[in-house]
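Table S2 (text version). Query chain:
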Amino acid sequence: MELWYTEEQTPSLRLSCKVRETLTTAQTPYQHLAIIDTEAFGPMLVLDGMVMTTIADEFVYHEMISHPALFTHPCPRKVAVIGGGDGGAIREVLQHPQVEKAILAEIDGEVIAQSRKFLPEIAGALGNPKVEIHIGDGFAYLREHKGEFDIVLVDSTEPVGPAVALFSRDFYAAVYAALRPDGIMVAQTESPFYNQEILAGAYKGMQAVFPKVHTYLASIPTYPSGLWSFTLASKQYDPLTNQRQPHPGFISKYYTPELHRSCFVLPQFVRELLSRP
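Corresponding structure-token output:
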């Protein structure tokens, strides 16, 4: 008998993957968690019926939420990741030798625990001595740590449940306050095809708080439409004019110095979306 997992990406579009086996399921205080082994993408983390990451394509998301900001900042010493309990963004942050401390603020400790158990390729860096794990509300954590961070990465789920607040102007203001005078934030801002209101709202919300805001794109096969957006907001540095080069030991499968520049060149329909009043 064949078993398939189906994600309803929109009310009229679904993605189905053939499943080898279910590795774990749990109802946490915040969401339903499942890790399944799929034929096409390998182990897959699913939260409340939405694909969060897979072994096959996770490198795209985790490299692109991390490196554009980290290579824009001249010396990122202290970095906070809000959400991102699978540990992939932390893994990429630690590739930068300037980083002295990386804080993971994840509301659902079960995501961390199960990722460590079933997704070690992604979560393996969480045991690094530079990493500090905080289980709790990331919004509240930032409010309690003003002026501390060089970079804040907002590795959130879609704006449902506990993640709704992470797409608000109040949250962007809290990130601004938590950053040092030359700090940078990046947030995942959904699909420019299927989540246009979310992307436009996030872009305008950051523009109301930060002087420099740039949206950029990456191709992630398991995410709705395959085309995904991130938005970088900076107090001082422009990602198009400030760019460090990778050190000799840097490893990537998607990010390159050339891509750093080109990912900010947006298709016309995205430019029009972001320019709407």
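Notes on Table S2: The chain is about 30% helix and 35% strand. The mean pLDDT is 95.
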